[in-house]
Specification:
The chain is α+β, with helices and mostly antiparallel strands and about 130 residues long. It has a single domain, classed as Alpha-Beta Plaits, CATH 3.30.70. Helix content is about 30%, strand content about 30%. It has 3 helices and 4 strands; from the N terminus they run E-H-E-H-E-H-E. The protein has a 4-stranded antiparallel β-sheet with strand order 2-3-1-4, sandwiched between helices. The longest helix has 18 residues. The termini are far apart. About 25% of the residues are buried.
Length: about 130
């Protein structure tokens, strides 16, 4: 079965050192184009732990590393593109472009999205708006 090209977006939560993410974010569009995505765009914002104090990424990090995240910061990232790839393959391509050992969760969806729609609409952070 062949999938036609259509807009897609990947929404991720990442637990990553900010300087590492900045470098990765700059390289991501070219890497994703090589993987088969057209015109990939990347947006992200740091997420304050007060907005998500029970982050499953922070919990997993602490369990595996033996301590709470120190330099690592939660980020919400949205990657938009056009592709004929299956959604799970888009997610795999995005995750493969992350530094090894990055804690993440997320998924890819068909359609378009406002990439900056994130923490401002989070119920946990609504009181901060």
């Amino acid at each position: 079965m062949t999938t036609q090209s259509r807009p897609v977006y990947t929404r991720l939560q990442l637990l990553i050192i900010p300087s590492v993410w900045q470098e990765t974010q700059q390289e991501l569009p070219a890497t994703l184009e090589q993987a088969g995505l057209t015109n990939p765009q990347v947006w992200s914002a740091e997420t304050n732990f007060t907005c998500e104090p029970d982050s499953m990424l922070a919990t997993e990090f602490a369990q595996r590393e033996g301590h709470a995240p120190i330099a690592e910061v939660l980020h919400r990232a949205t990657i938009t593109a056009v592709t004929d790839m299956e959604l799970r393959d888009v997610t795999k391509a995005v995750v493969a472009a992350l530094p090894e050992g990055t804690y993440w969760y997320g998924s890819t969806y068909e359609g378009t999205v406002d990439p900056e729609d994130g923490d401002t609409n989070s119920a946990a952070c609504a009181w901060q708006s």
